[in-house]
Design goal:
A six-stranded parallel sheet has the order 2-1-3-4-5-8, sandwiched between helices. Strands 6-7 form a two-stranded parallel sheet. The chain is built from eight helices and eight strands; from the N terminus they run βαβαβααβαββαβαβα. Helix 1 crosses helix 7, helix 4 packs parallel to helix 5 and helix 7 packs across helix 8. The radius of gyration is 16 Å and the shape is globular.
Length: about 210
């Protein structure tokens, strides 16, 4: 049986994942801190605060597994600083909360191309986030690196709407992926045994896990 901490439950991947976890009999408790209240949070502990770190601080009961599905874009965030806060600081805060509560496995949605030495700001921040999590010494960590995510967002992202038709035609890891498939792959991975301390799931691997 598993107790879960999930951040990003109001987002594209996190919303799908939350529904899967709620319906999984192996899950005994879910804490899903958010910036705004969940529309439907039956059987879910949902502390919320515009400052997500304050909502995270309200989670005090032990957890076994942590999922972090936080993610935005520089355009959505409004500035480089705000993007770093959302995609680096809050992800690290989620992980630290999980460690404080005794979690053994951290699963996080990163991005294809994540690399702390990348010349591209977005990829560099994602890579720095991954490195920060690695340094925390998790017993087990899963880094998901999807390509462009497809799905129904509350607010459409202009660049993604423009590029989505092209990315559906690309091969391999470049091919766009449905958000629900990323969620399904994370869900499956969380309950599958592994001898690896750190597992990186490419977009193609995420798609295969979801299909299986």
């Amino acid at each position: 049986m598993s107790r879960i901490l999930l951040t990003g439950a109001t987002g594209l991947v996190g919303g799908h994942l939350l529904r899967m976890l709620v319906n999984d009999p192996r899950v005994t408790a879910i804490a899903a801190p958010t910036r705004r209240p969940l529309e439907s949070a039956a059987d879910v502990f949902n502390p919320y605060d515009p400052q997500l770190s304050d909502a995270l601080a309200q989670v005090t009961t032990p957890v076994d597994t942590v999922f972090c599905c936080l993610g935005t874009t520089r355009r959505e965030a409004g500035s480089k600083e705000a993007f770093i806060h959302a995609d680096y600081t809050l992800v690290v805060d989620t992980a630290l909360t999980g460690l404080r509560l005794g979690a053994q496995h951290m699963l996080v949605v990163s991005s294809m191309g994540a690399n702390a030495r990348s010349p591209f700001f977005y990829n560099r921040v994602k890579g720095e986030m991954e490195n920060a999590l690695r340094e925390q010494g998790w017993e087990r960590m899963t880094l998901a690196r999807p390509s462009m995510l497809l799905g129904d967002r509350e607010k459409q992202r202009f660049n993604e709407s423009l590029m989505a038709p092209l990315f559906t035609l690309l091969p391999g890891n470049w091919k766009s992926i449905e958000a629900r498939d990323v969620a399904a792959a994370l869900h499956r991975t969380a309950f599958a045994p592994s001898a690896e301390r750190v597992t990186i799931l490419t977009s193609s691997q995420l798609r295969r896990l979801a299909e299986d």
